[in-house]
Every structure is written in structure tokens, then in C-alpha cells.
Design brief:
Largest sheet: 5 strands, mixed
Structural class: alpha+beta
Distance between the termini: 64 Å
Number of helices: 6
CATH topology of the largest domain: Ubiquitin-like (UB roll)
CATH class of the largest domain: Alpha Beta
Order of helices and strands: EEHEEEHHHHH
Bound molecules: FE2/S2 (inorganic) cluster
Number of domains: 2
Strand content: 5-15%
Shape: globular
Length: 173
Amino acid sequence: MTLSISLTVNGVRQDLAIDDPRVTLLDLLRDRLTLTGTKKGCDRGQCGACTVLVDGRRVNSCLSLALSLDGAEVLTIEGLAKGDALDPVQQAFIAHDGFQCGFCTPGQIMSAVGLLNEGETGDDPERIREGMSGNLCRCGAYAGIAEAVSTARRLRDETARPLRDEDETRRIA
Ligand code: FES
Ligand code: FES
């Protein structure tokens, strides 16, 4: 039996026929929508390479059944930048060499975005490391990843900070 679902993926509505109820979000993204930035590592919820955001929260897409997500908003690594403007997390990963081979990097970045959305870590490096512990990196780039997440958190705060009087003066001078 074929069922239909509707997802918004990276801002674009997708109406999809699903003929296998076991199809995962990961396979749907990679095989049907050719969004191969989301990586398949373990395919069993242990490495975090497949992390995407669903309704703003990070999930392992290899463990998420597509049929259960009807109506959801999905954000993948392909939808993170705004045109040529990289997300602060992407900028920080580059600045801190938060990767080597790059295989885990899309999942790391999406997990970091989700972690910052959760807003629980503050600037505590231990809590950042703990919050990112579901994302494995075989290259061992953990130091750069933790620094990148910390920097991205600060960048986000600065971007979100309301203009102070002197900022306003500078901006309009
Ligand atoms: S591929 Fe999903 S957690 Fe490893
Ligand atoms: S950068 Fe190679 S697995 Fe993380």
C-alpha cells in the first residue's frame, strides 16, 4: 500500500509517496531527494553522522521513520547557509579546523545548531562536549569541534544582541 506524506525540506514543500513504511528519513533525504550531505554512518543511531533538524530539534534521521513525520519541517546541511552567507556554526567550524576528512561534519554541524537552539550549555566547555557526545568523529577532531561550537554560540549571541546606542550611532554614521 502506498501512503503519502508532506514534508517541508529546507523551505521547500515535498509531497512524497511512500510505498515502504520502513523507509527512514535518512534514506528519503539521500535516495529520493538527492540531499546526500546528510551522511549514513552506522545506520543504527550510534554515530550521529545522519543528524538533521526536525521542527528545530536534532534527530538521528536513520532512526526516524519518514511516515511518522507527515507535516514536519526538516532542515539539512544543504539548507543551513543563506545563499553565500554561511551559518555562524559553519563559519566557526572553518575557523577552528573542526574537521579533517569531513565525513562526520554535516552531522556535527547540524547537531551543533540543534544544541545551540536548545540553549542549555551556556559557555561551559564540558556541557558543550557532553551535548555533542552523540556525534562521533573517527578523525578525532573533537578539540576543534568543541571550540567551534563555543565560538558559534558567541557569534549567535552577538548577532541576536539588540543594538546599543553606540552601535546604532556607528551603524547610521
Ligand atoms: S547513521 Fe544515524 S546515527 Fe549513525
Ligand atoms: S572529520 Fe573525519 S570523521 Fe570527523
